[in-house]
Amino acid sequence: MILPKSNRLTSEQLNEVTAIVAEFGCKIQPIVGAVRTIYAIVGDERDELMINRLEGLDYVERIDRIQSPFKLMDKRSDLASHRITINGVTLGEELFVIAGNCTIDPKNPNYFYETAQAVKEAGATMIRGGVWKPRTNPYSFQGDVKSLDILLEGSRRTGLPVDTEVMEEAHIKLALDAGVTCLQIGARNALNYSLLRAIGRAVAEREVVVLLKRSIHMGPISEFISAGEYIAAFGNPNIILCPRGTSPTLDGYRNHPDESITPLLKEKTWAPVVVDPSHSVGKAVYVQAAALAAIAYGADGLCLEAHVSPSHGIGDDPKQALTPEVLAETIAQAKALWAIRRGVKVG
Ligand code: PEP
Ligand code: MN
Question: How far apart are the C-alpha atoms of 182 and 175, rounded to whole Å?
């Protein structure tokens, strides 16, 4: 990581450092912050000669070398001061909540519009709605691109930004062109390194956020953070890590709840953690307790499935979605617990 003396390198300076690192098989990836741009050295940055030559340049303040498989996502990285702000909520400073339908029903868009309104009234920051769906059964409803218009109409009606899952490069382009604020990489694709690279490349120059779910099959904490590094390596550090339960399941729950990994993630990475208890426990009746447990464990936010009439929902909604009343109560309780966790007096 190259930290320049000024807020950013001039194009001549950038060309010079790019030429130096290229001799050692590395590339430069600028990471543009609000005030300052820092320059990641992508590749093996262990060569002393390369570092000495860079340190010798009079416009370079210092070179930070982090020996970590995820040097950008690492807590010791200069990106540690990076903050993600969505619709006025800065993650880490205020409870952040995404809520909405698992799957938008393109034949009955009013369920989504009414849910979006209820999500707003419940105090969430962003609305979720599945347009394209990864389904275990190939004959189940796979989503419909028409739902993208419904998603954005829900955003216009409420004034809230939206999140949706993308499963292939074509989805990434469609979602970005439509104005989706948060692209979700689902549990099934969190180990799809070519998709992670594609999304990193696509979001590099944009003010958008990636919500990266934890794969059902991920074990070590570093495996999850390294998946985020694939995206960050292209220059957009707006990455949120989302534990959502793993396999094998805990008998009775849909997955093995993993909200307890939040403190372990936070020891290693600066990235915010937004827990999804809906997919973790898989049944609406267990979601509230799991959501509060996630906040107690230090999560920065929650991703919750909700529906105005869960039994009329499609996808996971009939089983997992919270009603507007339970959603509002869950968010209120999570906010109270958040305040307790931060040592703020309540009541
Ligand atoms: C979802 O968010 O509806 C979803 C399919 O999630 P996951 O990838 O965590 O299974
Ligand atoms: Mn779902």
Answer: 9
Nearest to 239 by CA among 191, 274, 288: 274
Determine the average pLDDT of the residues in 325-329: 98
d(CA 325, CA 307): 10
- Centre of ligand 2 to C-alpha 315, Å, is 6
β-sheet bridge partners, residue 85? 90
Instruction: Tell how far the Cα of 235 is from the centroid of ligand 2, in angstroms.
Output: 29
Let me know: does 227 contact 190? Beta carbons within 8 Å. yes
The pLDDT value recorded for residue 346 is 57
**What one-character DSSP code corresponds to residue 93?**
T
Give pTM, 2 decimals: 0.94
Contact 153, 113 (CB under 8 A): yes
User: Is 213 touching ligand 1 by the criterion CB < 6 Å?
Assistant: yes
Those residues with Cβ within 8 angstroms of residue 257's Cβ, 6 or more apart along the chain or in another chain: 245, 250, 277, 280, 281, 290, 293
Determine whether the shortest distance from the Cβ of 134 to ligand 1 is under 6 A.
yes
Surrounding residues of ion ligand 2, Cβ less than 5 A: 102, 316
- State what percent of residues in the chain have pLDDT above 70: 99
Average pLDDT over residues 58-73: 91
Ligand 1 nearest-atom number relative to CA 187:
8
Taking the C-alpha atoms of residue 288 and residue 295, their distance in angstroms, rounded to an integer, is 11
